[in-house]
Structure formats: C-alpha cells, structure tokens
Amino acid sequence: MKADTKLYELAFLLKDPEAEKAIDALLMQHGGVMASKGQTKPIKLAYPIEKHVSAFFGYMQFEMQPENIEKISHALMLAPNVIRFLVTIPPAVKKPAEKRPEDGKKVSVKREGSKSVLTNDALEEKLAALESEVAAK
User: Which of 47, 51, 85, 130 makes a 20 to 30 Å CA pair with 110?
Assistant: First the structure.
C-alpha cells in the first residue's frame, strides 16, 4: 500500500449484477487499486427500497487516495443501477497472540506497569513456599 493511499471497503446493493463492472471501472478511473472482492449475490430485502424487493449485494476492498472518495460517492449516488452503497474504513486487523513454548521452560510474563519478569522456575519456588506455609499452619 502506498503511503498516500488508504484502505477502504465498499458495500453496495445493485439492481443488476452487471452494474458491478461499472463500479470497478469507476474505481480504476479515480486511481483505486482493488485489494479484495466478494462475490455478488442476490438477496431479498427486508423492506422495499425504491420499490425493489430484491437486489444484488456485493462488497470490495480497495486502496485509494482519500481526496477521491468524495468523487466516488457522488458518482455512485448518480449511478442508475446502484440502489444503496456504503464506503467505510475497515477495522485494523489484530495480530495473533504469541504461543507459549510447549516444553514449559523459561516462559516470561510481562505486565504493563510492572518491571518484574516471572519465569516458570520462580513461579514454582513461590508456589512451594506458599504450600509449605499452608502445611505449617
């Protein structure tokens, strides 16, 4: 992704599935680069929109300069085959948590605001001390 572009997601309802080609062309015309695309599927609408009870739903992710989003939105509002659309910035993807080693050796746990590191050996020593205190009582 270029430094001056952002990732956007476009969800849309179309009267005709062939109108998706016009949306692709519109994005390319304004400097958009396709990142991913979902398959356009026919759906039944929960309530009529512009007297339509069914539509074709699709979505795509693309990279584009932020100043071109308003131009795309305006062009989609005027497009005759687009019933509804929504342009959003997708949420950031979280990185998966690191897995702990299965051998159980030297696993360190750091907590925010805490400067101490707790290893398995130190933990076992503390548990043994606590067990001996409980047994002594």
Answer: 130
8 φ, ψ (degrees, to nearest 5): -125, 160
Residue 27 has pLDDT above 70, yes or no: yes
Looking at the structure, tell me whether residues 110 and 83 fall in a common domain. no
Q: Are residues 16 and 82 in the same domain?
A: yes
* Same domain assignment for residues 113 and 61: no
Domain that holds residue 134: 102-137
**Residue 5 structure tokens:** 């572009």
pTM of the model: 0.64
Eight-class DSSP state of 71: H
Residue 57 in tokens: 């739903």
Q: Report how far residue 54's alpha carbon sits from residue 28's, in angstroms, rounded to the nearest whole number.
A: 28
**Assign residue 109 a region: left if phi > 0, alpha if psi is -120 to 50, beta otherwise?**
beta
76 and 89 Cβ atoms separated by less than 8 Å = no
pLDDT tens across 10-19, in order?
999 999 999 9
12 and 77 part of one domain: yes
CA-to-CA distance for 26 and 21, rounded, in angstroms?
A: 9
